[in-house]
Amino acid sequence: MAGTPLGRTLGAHLHTWRPYTLWYPGLVGLAGATLTAAAHSAPLSAARMLVAWLVPTAVWTAAHYLGDYLDRDLDAIDKPQRPIPSGRMSPPTALACGAVLAAAATVVAVVLNWHTILLLAVGIGGAIAYNGLFKARGIWGNIVRGALTGAAFVFGTMTAAPFPPAGLLLFAAVFWAHDAASNLVGTLRDVAGDREGGYATFAVRHGLRTAARTAAVLYGAAVATALAGAAVVPGRETGYLLLVLLAAIGGCGAFRLLFVPGRALTPRVALSSHEVLVAERLVLADALLVPGLGLPAALGILALALVLTIGTQRTMRSRHEFAPGDRAPSAP
User: Fold this and answer.
1) Of 136, 151, 141, nearest to 181 (Cα)?
2) What angle do CA 178, 156, 136 make, to 5 degrees?
3) Beta partners for 137?
4) Quick one: average pLDDT of 307-325?
5) What is the DSSP string of 121-181?
6) Alpha-carbon distances, residue 208 vs 184, 187, 270 (angstroms)
7) Spatial distance between the Cα atoms of 153 and 156, rounded to a whole number of angstroms
8) CB atoms < 10 A from the CB of 145, how many?
9) Which tens digits make up the pLDDT trace of 54-111?
10) Neighbour count for residue 151 (Cβ, 10 Å)
11) Cβ-based neighbour number of residue 228 at 10 Å
């Protein structure tokens, strides 16, 4: 089937979804929902948990479609193997899929809690603005990109309460700083193409090493804030702290790859570091499931998310990031 027109079309959509990132935004939304329910000592229905996972996932996928549409000229220079520049997906198809997913997510969110309409508008608008404007404006692009994941957490809280509890917004800052750092690491592998395409990212402006150090500072701020958050999590602090510390160990491993003495910071090294962060951030998000769902349930969800993420990274990611003949190995 892979060689048939239908198989090529389905493969193009699958590559656009980036399955190795797809499980994270829903996990962040679910964390916001279960943490809020635990803080209010209120039951949380399966339907609300599903919406907390589904809407951020749909918006995240819509952002991939819309981002690929907006970046199609840049990808034609640096990543011609991607669905749009390779001709496997037309630009109007990507635009339509992104718009439909964004609209569907908005309808579902507003039906559950109409107060989320502004948050959805900011989130979807921010995803478009990231690719269309901020990505080429240095650190602002990374800050805007990180804020989108913070918004996913806030949305999750609003599936369990009319408005986000002020005491839990600390964790939105955790995801904001973490994903600004992760996004900055992700740009390290694209410096040559971004420079050729006229995208003045932070790494293009200030160099790879400065960008890597800045990402490490942002990541450290995220972990420090998460550790401080143990003071406000509603119970089961030990399990929460255990997973945060495990995430921090993974993060340290990711950044260690960027700072090995005597080794050049190549696109392959940058990709390997980012692959570790893609898995590590699942552990960080899962830590916030512990207060509401308990450690065994949180670990079960984490195990499934890690298997799906690591498996699809190993089988798909190099093909999406590097042209044939220039494959980057997956991180060990």
Assistant:
1) 141
2) 40
3) 200
4) 80
5) HHHHHHHHHHHHTGGGBTHHHHHHHHHHHHHHHHHHHTTTSSS--GGGHHHHHHHHHHHHH
6) 10, 9, 10
7) 5
8) 24
9) 999 999 999 999 999 999 998 888 888 899 999 999 999 999 999 999 999 999 999 9
10) 26
11) 11
Cα distance between residue 268 and residue 270, in whole Å: 5
For 98, counting Cβ atoms within 10 Å of its Cβ (0-12 exposed, 13-18 middle, 19+ buried), the class is buried
Residue 323: per-residue pLDDT: 63
Report residue 3's pLDDT band, with 50, 70 and 90 as the boundaries: low
Q: How confident is the model at residue 331 (pLDDT cuts 50, 70, 90)?
A: very low
Tokens 């207060």 belong to residue:
291
pTM of the entire predicted model = 0.93
Query: In the structure encoding, which two tokens stand for residue 64, read together?
Result: 């991939």
Cα 112 versus chain centre, distance:
24
Other Cβ atoms within 10 Å of 95 Cβ, number: 15
Rounded average pLDDT over 197-210: 92
Say which residue, 319 or 266, is predicted with more confidence. 266
Predicted pLDDT of residue 325: 54
DSSP state of 322: S
200 beta partners: 137
What number of other Cβ atoms are within 10 A of residue 5's Cβ? 8
Helix, strand and coil percent figures for the chain, each rounded to 5 = 80, 0, 20
What pLDDT, on the 0 to 100 scale, is given for residue 42?
Answer: 83
Q: How far apart are CA 148 and CA 286, in angstroms?
A: 18
Residues recorded for the chain: 332
Average pLDDT over residues 38-49: 91
Task: Give the whole-angstrom CA distance, residue 133 versus residue 112.
Answer: 31
Q: Copy the structure tokens of residue 47.
A: 């339907």
Rounded-to-integer distance, Cα 283 and Cα 24, Å: 10
Is the CB of residue 177 less than 8 Å from the CB of residue 194?
no
Q: Are 270 and 189 spatial neighbours (Cβ–Cβ below 8 Å)?
A: yes
